[in-house]
Amino acid sequence: MNAVEIEEAVSLLAEQPFEAEAFPYAFLEAFGNKATTIKRLKSGATNKSDVGGVLQRGNIQIKA
Length: 64
Fold this sequence. Notes:
This protein has about 60 residues and is mainly alpha-helical. The chain has helices spanning about 5-15, 25-30, 35-45, and strands at about 55, 60. It has one domain (about 5-60). β1 (about 55) and β2 (about 60) form a beta hairpin. α1 (about 5-15) runs antiparallel to α2 (about 25-30).
């Protein structure tokens, strides 16, 4: 994804009602993460967060 596509996706996300449970995954999707990556994080297979958020190793940790 290029910067314009990311900005558009994040702007659309900002317009949506805030849902703390879904936000980290929607945010990662806005930055171009694939559906399989999101699915693995949601299932806990690759989510190694120790603070109750979402940890995508080597990339970002989000807690809403």
